[in-house]
Structure formats: C-alpha cells, structure tokens
Amino acid sequence: MKVLLINGSPHARGCTYTALAEAEKVLKEEGIETEIVSIGTAPIRGCIACGKCRQLENRCVFDDDIVNRIIIKAEDAAGFIFGSPVYYASANGAMTALMDRLFYAGKVFAHKPGACVVSARRAGTTAALDQLNKYLMISGMPVVSSQYWNMVHGNTPEEVAQDLEGLQIMRTLGRNMAWLLKSIEAGRQAGIEPPVPEAFERTNFIR
Length: 207
Ligand SMILES: Cc1cc2nc3c(=O)[nH]c(=O)nc-3n(C[C@H](O)[C@H](O)[C@H](O)COP(=O)(O)O)c2cc1C
Hints:
This protein has helices at about 15-30, 65-75, 95-105, 125-135, 155-160, 165-190; strands at about 1-5, 35-40, 80-85, 90, 115-120, 150-155. It is an alpha/beta fold. Strands 1, 2, 3, 4, 5 and 6 form a six-stranded mixed sheet that branches. Strand 1 (about 1-5), helix 1 and strand 2 form a beta-alpha-beta unit. Flavin mononucleotide binds near residues 85 and 89.
C-alpha cells in the first residue's frame, strides 16, 4: 500500500515539502509505503484540449514532461497527497497544469483516498485548497480530512517548522489517511469492492 505525495512547488525542499514530509512521517510510522515526487522547475505544458488522451489509455499525448511519469506512478498508488504553494490565492501555475492533465488523461484515481495541502506566507490558502480538492471530488476519490483545513504558513521551511498547528494538521492528515487506507483494504479482504459506476449521464446545459 503506497501513498504518492506530489510536491507542486519549484522548491524541492521548501515549505510545501516540509508539510508533505510531516504527513509522510506519520504514514511511514503507520506502515504505509510512501514516495514524494517533486515536480521541479522544468516546464509543464497546459492541457490543449486535443482529446487524444481518450484514445491513449491513461496517457497524455505530450510525453516530454513529468505528467505521464506521474500517471504511471499513480497507477500503482493506493492514496495521494497533492501539495502546492499558494500563488495569488491559487495553486501555482505548474501544479495547475499538472493537475489538469493528470486528471483528464489519467483515469487512475477513482475510489483511492486523496488529500490536498497548501503552503502560503499568509493568505489565499482556502481558495487554493478549494481549487485542488475539486480534482479529487470530480474523480470519485474519498477526500481525507484533518483537524483543520490542510495548510501550513511560512515563506521558508524554517518558518513552517514554527507553525506547530500546521504541522499537527499534517500529522493528523497522515494518520487519517493511514486509517482509511487500512479500512478500505480490510473491506476489500472481506469482499467489499468499489461500487460499479452507472453509464455516464452527460447533460450539457445548452443542448
Ligand atoms: C508568484 C508567487 C505568488 C504568491 N502568492 C501568495 C499568495 O497569494 N498568498 C500567500 O500567502 N503567499 C503567496 N506566495 C508565497 C508562497 O505561497 C509561500 O512562500 C509558500 O510557502 C512557498 O512554498 P514553497 O517553499 O513550497 O515553494 C507567493 C509566492 C510567489 C512566488
């Protein structure tokens, strides 16, 4: 059982990483395998709405950046934590580009628990969280919560280390995710499988 933690920041060991690492610490203590993947500083294309991913099984047509590599890792993961710094009260641009293509091309998330966490100097955290949580909620993922909204505050990892409540939120999140993963696995062993989806009823409002 593995949890994939995505660090959407250009800083591989920055504030977002510090938050993710705190959740990861607890997941490991709970016996859950983990991997933190940083998206780094290389460009990530935005979705061009070409629709080619409908013909390619769980792959984006663009294979020259990190998106397909994360989809491949996501296929084997049982749970996810998506972390982003807050840029202008949203997830940063690279993370938004990643999430658009990851969820549009990679149909690998349904019924797998997920959570989003954000890091900000001061404000815009709940707006960014709302944005990120929507990817999970349109994908049939059980959204894991904590004792507060999943955020830390700081401009540097050292400042985040002083956000004792923020770090506790991350630990509680990790513990809740471990509990849910183990519960789902226990259910599976008892014969409880994910629900079979209905045929998709797609209603466009102008037709
Ligand atoms: C372009 C840009 C926009 C930012 N916008 C916000 C913002 O809206 N609110 C805020 O509190 N901090 C903002 N920040 C600060 C970062 O969110 C904050 O330093 C974050 O913790 C950095 O995380 P990281 O070290 O993982 O990259 C911004 C930073 C940059 C570079």
